[in-house]
Amino acid sequence: MATHIYKGKSNNSSNILYTWNGKHLYSGNSTNSSRILFTFDGEYLFKGNSTNSSNILYTFDGQYLYKGKSTNSSNILNTFNGEYILKGKSTNSSDILFTFDGSYLYKGKSTNSSSILITVSGSIPRLFLIIL
Predict the structure, then answer these.
(1) Interval 107-120: pLDDT, tens
(2) What is the pLDDT of residue 87?
(3) N or C end of the chain: smaller count of CB under 10 Å?
(4) Cα 129 to Cα 10: distance, rounded to the nearest angstrom
């Protein structure tokens, strides 16, 4: 079953921004190959449908999001600790960009409903929460 990402605190089909099928992220509710934005192989995020190494945008190891193919610490863009998405390699609470509770992505550390940016129905690699 596909995972959907909705705008705000909604799970109305008219508010679907993206669809994830386990390999590709699509624009909107369609899984038509012409709507593929990204391909994720579990480690690398590729632009479009290609898994050519020249199309690698990011590397994700489960904790860190790196720019490009390199896992050098100087290329760390974000840190994921299970609940928070932080800036760079930081674990300092002042560097929290987003909070994710499994269903909602909140701006900052707040889990107030007014801070909800998107709703996720299903499972999606956490790296999509930051790049979208």
Answers:
(1) 999 999 999 999 99
(2) 96
(3) N
(4) 16
Domain boundaries, the chain: 3-131
Distance CA 104, CA 115 (A): 9
Report d(CA 46, CA 59) in Å as an integer.
9
Domain 3-131 has CATH 2.40.160: yes
Length of the chain: 132
Site of tokens 């760390």: 76
| Nearest of 106, 109, 105, 107 to residue 5 by alpha carbon | 105
Predicted TM-score (pTM) of the model is 0.91
> What tokens were used for 26?
């699509």
| Contact (Cβ atoms closer than 8 angstroms) between residue 70 and residue 59 | yes
